[in-house]
Design brief:
Radius of gyration: 15 Å
Mean pLDDT: 82
Helix content: 40-55%
Low-confidence stretches: none
Largest sheet: 2 strands, antiparallel
Strand content: 5-15%
Structural class: alpha+beta
Distance between the termini: 31 Å
Strand order of the largest sheet: 1-2
Number of strands: 2
C-alpha cells in the first residue's frame, strides 16, 4: 500500500509539464480512429527515451510497453485509448 503521498504529489508535479506537452502534441496532430500510426510512433519514441521496452502491435496502431527486464517485478497493466473524442478537455 502506498503511504507516502508527498512523494506521489512531487512526482506528479515533476511530470505534469511533460504530460501536458504530450497532450497538446496529440491534440495538434489528430488521426482518424483506427489509423493512429503516427500517434503510436510518437508515444513509442517518448517511452523508449524513458528506457522502456516498446513493441508495436495492432498493425502499428498500438503499443505493448514493459519496464527493462532488469527491473521486472510486480507489474501493472493499463489500457489507454488514443482515439479522438469530442468535447472539452
Amino acid at each position: 500500500m502506498i503511504t507516502d503521498w508527498n512523494r506521489i504529489d512531487a512526482l506528479v508535479d515533476k511530470l505534469a509539464p511533460e504530460m501536458i506537452a504530450v497532450r497538446h502534441h496529440l491534440h495538434a496532430h489528430p488521426e482518424p480512429s483506427g489509423a493512429e500510426r503516427q500517434t503510436a510512433q510518437f508515444l513509442a519514441e517518448r517511452l523508449r527515451a524513458d528506457g522502456l521496452e516498446v513493441r508495436s502491435v495492432a498493425d502499428d496502431r498500438g503499443l505493448l510497453v514493459a519496464p527493462p527486464r532488469a527491473r521486472m517485478g510486480r507489474r501493472l497493466g493499463l489500457h489507454a485509448d488514443t482515439g479522438q473524442k469530442r468535447g472539452r478537455e
